[in-house]
Amino acid sequence: MSANRRWWVSPEDEDSVRKKLLRKTRESPLVPIGFGGCLVVAAYRIYQLRARGSTKMSIHLIHTRVAAQACVVGAIMLGTVYTMYSDYVKRMAQDAGEK
After folding, report:
1. CA-to-CA distance for 72 and 65, rounded, in angstroms?
2. So where are the chain's domains?
3. Which PANTHER family match (predicted)?
4. pLDDT tens-digit profile of 23-69?
5. What pTM was computed for the model?
């Protein structure tokens, strides 16, 4: 079995992390928004941890997880609706242009 010596690509040949992140953000801009929302919710809920009162820690963490996931799922849903709408509008414009 021969070793594949081309599996490693030098840093000059591949995109930098920043370029790759910018390219991915342009392709699907709502993913970083959802991730940012997740981080904001998690940071806020951790900040509110002091004032949780008599609520158990496990309940507080479950609520934090659900709120963070809601931000991500909401961003995914917005992206899906936007894509469906833009595809529909493009198709309708093409159909109108052909007539």
Report:
1. 11
2. 23-53, 60-98
3. HIG1 DOMAIN FAMILY MEMBER 1B, HYPOXIA-INDUCBILE GENE 1 HIG1 -RELATED
4. 878 887 777 888 888 889 888 888 888 787 788 888 888 988 999 88
5. 0.59
